[in-house]
Structures are given as structure tokens and as C-alpha cells.
Amino acid sequence: MRYGCGKPGARLAAIFCAWALAVTVATAGGASAQEVLRVGVVPALTQGQTRIGIEKLQDHLASELGRTVEIQVLSDYAAVVEALGFGHVDMAYLGPRTYVIAHHRYGAQAVVTQLIDGSPYYHSYFIVPHDSPLQSIDELRGKQVAFGDPSSTSGSLIPKLELIRRGIDPDRDLRALHTGSHDATALAVLNRHVDAGAIDSAYFHLLIRRGQIPEDGFRVIWQSEPLFQYPWAVRKNMDPELIEQIRAAFLKITDQDILDAFGASGFTIATNEDYELIRQAAEAFGDLQ
């Protein structure tokens, strides 16, 4: 498995730095170089939380597909989009926002997504400390607010669009910071480093179930409409037979370490049409220009 390096947002530097690192490859009986499936991933939580699950996923895919699989952990969503677009990876785990960008720019196609408690939907939340006087996001003007990765759907795009709809400019009317991951956002709110934070509902509840944050330490002051879950997308013109094999391999996953790495209870088929709502939001935010 490869681990990305460099600071978030340094697209090309992150890509080439990741490729310069050592690789641990899960193999399936002497596969040739042409049979390698290269996968790019950006963990939604910090890398230490997901390493075991990603290693097991690599082994599972290699076994099910009968070919070498390399999973490369990159530094941010932008790096994964560029890696997919320029053919450095064949498949990528993307946020919904970065998927619609990858589809728009490079013809990437969604093939599967995770289920959360049996559903392929989640929400964006704004959370505050449990005893915060804030009751609504209309009160966030002038406050310190944490967002996740700048390319995140639930940690950046959707909550910022909601603020704009309410007449609050996230760049001018808030003291905003980007934590880079959902667990970092939750801890920033819990430890009162910020007044509020935007977070993925599925990962928020996963952190509570794991006992990493206390359920009674927070209040949710805003919830978005349902959003379709993070897709696994393949490069343009991938062999349809391989796509179906990949889908079948994901649908067989029951290993809890793999599921927990993605906050999932299972996986299901996804298509480009499932992300129309996100495409509209990304277009409104200027992502598809």
C-alpha cells in the first residue's frame, strides 16, 4: 500500500510524491503487470484509523479479481481526481463532490458505494458543543467554524452552499479553518477550538459508536437533505466485464475491519445518475466550469 505525502491541496506534488514511495502489493498468483488494478483512496478519517481495513480490502480484491491490486493512499481528494484522470489509478474512492468533478473532466464512472445502516444516504451536519448558546447556523456569522477537506461534500460544499443561501459568505463572514478530516473536525468542536463544525453524519455517528467522542458532547444545529454516499469510481473506458467483477467483489464484503474503514454496513451498486443532486450543487459552486 502506498501512502501519500505533502500538504493537502498540493495536487501534482502529492501525486508524484505518492508514486515515489515504496509499495506493498497484494498479489494473486503471479499476475502480469497488465493485470494490476491500481486504486487511489483518501481516508475520510485519519490514516491510522483505516490502515487495517484498507490492507484487508486490498487482499480481498486481489483474491476475488485474480489479479494484483495496489491501493495507494493519497493526501487529498484533488490528488485522487488527477490520478484517475491521468491514468495513474484505475479506480478511486471519492467524495460525491470530487466524483462529479472527475466524471465531468475525465469521464469517470461510479460503480459501487457503501451502505450506512442499510441505506446509501447520509447527511451533512453542523455540530456545536452540547452547551453552546448557538441554536441555528444563522448565528454563525463572525464565529470560528471548522470544515473538513476543502473538496469534501459534507464537510465543505453542502454546508457552505447552505450558508450562502442564508446570506452568510463562508470566506468573509466566518473565521473558517479546514481540518482535513471528519474526526479532526469533531475533536475541534469537542475541545472548543471552534464554535461549530461541518461534518459527515455517518462518520460522526461512527466516531460515537467507537467511543472516540462522547454522544452527549455535541448538538446538531443543522442537517442537510439526504446525500448519496461516497462512490468508488473507475476510469473511462474500463472493460465492462471487469466493472462487474469489481461490483461483485464489493458486494461480497463482510469483514468488519473493511466496513469500519469506510463507516459502512455493506456495499451496493452506484451509477452516475445517483449523483445528480451533488452535480447540481457542484455546478452552483462553480466546480464544473
Rg over CA atoms, rounded to whole Å, is: 19 Å
Q: Give the CATH topology of the largest domain.
A: D-Maltodextrin-Binding Protein, domain 2
Shape: globular
Helix content: 25-40%
Cα(first) to Cα(last) distance is 34 Å
Give the number of domains: 2
> Which structural class is indicated by helix and strand composition?
alpha/beta
How many β-strand runs?
Answer: 14
What percent strand? 15-25%
* CATH architectural arrangement of the largest domain: 3-Layer(aba) Sandwich
Task: Report strand order across the widest sheet.
Answer: 1-3-2-4-13-5-14
H and E string:
EHEHEHEHEEEEHEHEHEEEHHEH
Per CATH, the class of the largest domain reads Alpha Beta
The helix tally amounts to 10
Characterize the biggest β-sheet. Answer: 7 strands, mixed
Overview of the structural elements:
This protein is α/β, with parallel strands linked by helices and 289 residues long. Helix content is 37%, strand content 20%. It has helices at residues 11-20, 47-65, 77-85, 96-106, 153-165, 182-190, 201-209, 240-251, 256-261, 276-284, and strands at 2-3, 37-41, 69-73, 91-93, 109-115, 121-122, 124-129, 144-147, 175-178, 196-200, 218-223, 227-228, 231-234, 266-269. Residues 1-33 have low confidence and may be disordered.
